[in-house]
Amino acid sequence: MTKLFEDLPRPPVISHSAHTAHKLKLVTTGGAPFRCDGCMQPGDAHRYRCERCDFDLHTCCALPAATVEHALFKECTFTFHHDPPPPAKCRRCDACGDDVDGFVYHCGERDLDLHPCCALLPERFIQDGQAFQLRKEASRPCGFCGDKGERRKFWAYRSYYDAGEVLYLHVACIKDAHRTRNIGSGGQIVLAGAPIMEGLLQSLPRRTRRSRGFERFRRIVGVFASVIIAVIFGNPMALITAVAGPGGLLRG
What we know:
- By secondary structure, the chain is an alpha+beta fold.
- Helix content is 17%, strand content 28%.
- Mean pLDDT is 81; it is low at 1-7, 180-196 and 245-252.
């Protein structure tokens, strides 16, 4: 499993084969959300950017490892590709379920694909004694959408509430909680405003949501979801805040 912080710090200026006209500068300050011109997935904050050409890359897409492994597929080695392997138009990320339209990590032996940011998703997180374990699919309804449909075939985090009541959170639903799509000609991606976690756990039974200790559990889940969002959107500073900031993983 690739470590969450191993790629920091980054060089301030790089050259990249996907944009040979100009060098790319590391942007670490705030700014508008963007679509990565490598993996074509949404991003937030940190990026390598050509201001003149409005060209952006996630830091993990700009300086990718040639190969990665993930704990969910211990027998697989994922190789970085600039373009999806054929059949390119039929590929979806095996983590979040979104289409693969650009840079991707691919395992040829098992025909698996991961967006570069999704490849960084941790196998396990613990917050205030609450464990969240990554699973290849969800066997019960999601705490966000409450649905066991197509998204159950993709990655989800599993945890337990109260007396062993199981909770699943689709990676896709966590991603969508922080994103809305503007279906315009420019394909702009806009991140949803606060509160990010609106609707969190509302699909759980009313008796559960009214039970003692539920609000504390909901806060823990919110901190965890913020960590996953930071990974998916390639925002290491948000990840550090979620882990080390007030109420974060290291302060829980």
